[in-house]
């Protein structure tokens, strides 16, 4: 009895949390979950990017009612917790006849919120472009659309690379919330695998996979920020 | 009889409570070189910024090339007006060649090949043929401003506006920009130049306009303005700028 207590902790850490056999057995399941997570993340990031750009332009340049609606959208979707939005979309909308797949519900919730955050980032970026650039573009006679696409946005996008990358990391992390609506993402597959193997190793593996995927991006933001600071001096 | 290409009638511009222009009348004839001088805050920059509607005037009339300009209808007439800025305002993300070619492609409908050929020709004219593939940040201030002039010329405007084109330059670079402008003046293009360079005004202007407090106080040929100024404000201004 006493010897057991002394030996068991060391053994059990490996057996329980870092069990090689369980890891190998459940890895295929985790990798299929990872594919789903990445697909969801990339979809939401892309939609959020496009939506954010449109919202930012509407907020800055649209006429009165449309501009207020845009501001309201941005404020509402920056205030609502993504998990709440996801649950509403998945469990409440079917009552009005809108039934989305788990992937559809998760992609909608993530991109609706990401668009609101991206809109504020793009707006800051556009506002950071010097006034003289707008004036020079106008003085040349460029149309409002061309002023944006040729002169302002290329400069604004360069400015917002660090915060947009940061936001993309957040979206990628928030994909884990999709497991709540039974989407077979990395976290869901990991909990599934844990139940099957009666061992938490898959959860640890999933955590490590998240970190391995996202840490390079986190580093990248630091590099971007440093480069921008040097150029700005 | 050469016709007026710019006609400003009783033009008023205010920024909130501050009146920048108190009913200005100014006519510029085709091919004329008008130099606008005056102390800072006298409204000279506002005057030319109203001509191409970078500022919207609050009253009066501005007619460019026979058509009245206003803030919303500006696009058609105002492509005939080129502008050179104090701070150059080149597009930093484009090469020098692209900076000059952009307007002709987007506004005049030239192909990139045609526009770049035109740009190359204009860059040669301002002495920067070999700088075409560089980015603005790689050029000196004087070179950037000469690109700014080439960019404005590329639109083949009927009027060129210069808003203190040498004020942001190091002293040793002022000459190269003024030389280019003086060459330009000989080609018959209409120019309205806001500047503190009195030597340039004396040599190049057909007419000098002196502004103070948002009004045109005195105007006339350069030898009259500089040698026989009548208004006491003009006299004290000239004394201040010419004495050092």
UniProtKB/TrEMBL annotation, chain A:
Q: Which organism is it from?
A: Microvirga lupini
Has the keyword Cell membrane been applied to this entry?
yes
Spell out the subcellular localization from the entry: Cell inner membrane; Cell membrane
Membrane spanning stretches: 38-58, 70-93, 203-224
Annotated Gene3D superfamilies: MetI-like
Q: How does it sit in the membrane?
A: Multi-pass membrane protein
Which is a Gene Ontology cellular component entry for this protein?
A: ATP-binding cassette (ABC) transporter complex
All copies of the ABC transmembrane type-1 domain together span 34-222
Report the InterPro entries cross-referenced here.
Answer: AA_ABC_transptr_permease_3TM, ArtM/GltK/GlnP/TcyL/YhdX-like, MetI-like, MetI-like_sf
Q: What is its main location?
A: membrane
Pfam families noted in UniProt: BPD_transp_1 (PF00528)
Which family is annotated? Answer: Belongs to the binding-protein-dependent transport system permease family. HisMQ subfamily.
Q: Which keywords belong to this entry?
A: Amino-acid transport, Cell membrane, Membrane, Transmembrane, Transmembrane helix, Transport
Q: Does the keyword Iron apply?
A: no
UniProt-recorded Gene Ontology molecular function terms: transmembrane transporter activity
Supply one GO BP term.
amino acid transport
Summarizing the function annotation, the protein's role is:
Part of the binding-protein-dependent transport system for glutamine; probably responsible for the translocation of the substrate across the membrane.
Name of the protein in question: Polar amino acid transport system permease protein
From TrEMBL, chain B:
Q: Per the database record, which ranges form the ABC transporter domain?
A: 6-238
| Cited Pfam families | ABC_tran (PF00005)
Entry EC number(s): 3.6.3.-
Q: Which PROSITE patterns match?
A: ABC_TRANSPORTER_1, ABC_TRANSPORTER_2
GO terms (molecular function) for this protein are: ABC-type amino acid transporter activity; ATP binding; ATP hydrolysis activity
Protein's UniProt keywords contain Translocase: no
**UniProt keywords, alphabetically:** ATP-binding, Hydrolase, Nucleotide-binding, Transport
Coiled coil ranges: none
Family per record = Belongs to the ABC transporter superfamily.
Q: What is this protein called?
A: Polar amino acid transport system ATP-binding protein/general L-amino acid transport system ATP-binding protein
UniProt source species: Microvirga lupini
């Amino acid at each position: 009895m006493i010897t057991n207590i002394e030996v068991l902790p060391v053994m059990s850490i490996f057996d329980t949390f870092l069990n090689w056999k369980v890891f190998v057995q459940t890895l295929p399941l985790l990798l299929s979950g990872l594919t789903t997570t990445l697909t969801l993340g990339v979809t939401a990031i892309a939609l959020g990017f496009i939506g954010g750009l449109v919202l930012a332009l509407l907020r800055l340049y649209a006429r009165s009612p449309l501009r207020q609606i845009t501001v309201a959208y941005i404020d509402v979707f920056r205030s609502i917790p993504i998990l709440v939005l996801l649950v509403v979309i998945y469990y409440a909308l079917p009552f009005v006849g809108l039934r989305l797949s788990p992937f559809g519900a998760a992609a909608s919730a993530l991109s609706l919120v990401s668009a609101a955050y991206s809109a504020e980032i793009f707006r800051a970026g556009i506002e950071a472009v010097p006034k003289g650039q707008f004036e020079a573009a106008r003085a040349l006679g460029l149309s409002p659309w061309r002023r944006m696409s040729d002169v302002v946005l290329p400069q604004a996008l360069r400015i917002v690379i660090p915060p947009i990358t940061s936001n993309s990391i957040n979206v990628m992390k928030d994909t884990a919330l999709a497991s709540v609506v039974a989407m077979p993402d990395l976290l869901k597959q990991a909990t599934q695998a844990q139940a099957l193997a009666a061992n938490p190793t898959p959860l640890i593996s999933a955590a490590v996979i998240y970190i391995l995927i996202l840490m390079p991006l986190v580093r990248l933001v630091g590099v971007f920020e440093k480069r921008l600071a040097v150029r700005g001096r | 009889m050469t016709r007026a290409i710019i006609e400003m009638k009783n033009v008023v511009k205010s920024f909130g409570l501050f009146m920048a222009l108190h009913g200005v009348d100014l006519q510029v004839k085709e091919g004329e070189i008008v130099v606008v001088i005056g102390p800072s805050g006298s409204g000279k920059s506002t005057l030319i910024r109203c001509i191409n509607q970078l500022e919207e005037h609050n009253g009066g009339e501005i007619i460019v090339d026979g058509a009245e300009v206003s803030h919303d209808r500006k696009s058609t007439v105002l492509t005939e007006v080129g502008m050179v800025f104090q701070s150059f305002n080149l597009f930093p993300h484009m090469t020098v060649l692209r900076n000059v070619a952009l307007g002709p492609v987007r506004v005049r409908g030239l192909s990139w090949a045609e526009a770049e050929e035109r740009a190359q020709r204009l860059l040669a004219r301002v002495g920067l043929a070999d700088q075409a593939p560089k980015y603005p940040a790689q050029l000196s201030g004087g070179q950037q401003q000469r690109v700014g002039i080439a960019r404005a010329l590329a639109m083949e405007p009927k009027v060129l506006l210069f808003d203190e084109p040498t004020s942001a330059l190091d002293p040793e670079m002022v000459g190269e920009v003024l030389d280019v402008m003086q060459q330009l003046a000989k080609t018959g293009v209409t120019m309205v130049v806001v500047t503190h360079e009195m030597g340039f005004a004396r040599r190049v202007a057909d007419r000098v306009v002196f502004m103070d407090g948002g009004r045109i106080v005195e105007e006339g040929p350069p030898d009259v303005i500089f040698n026989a100024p009548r208004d006491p404000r003009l006299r004290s201004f000239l004394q201040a700028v010419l004495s050092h």
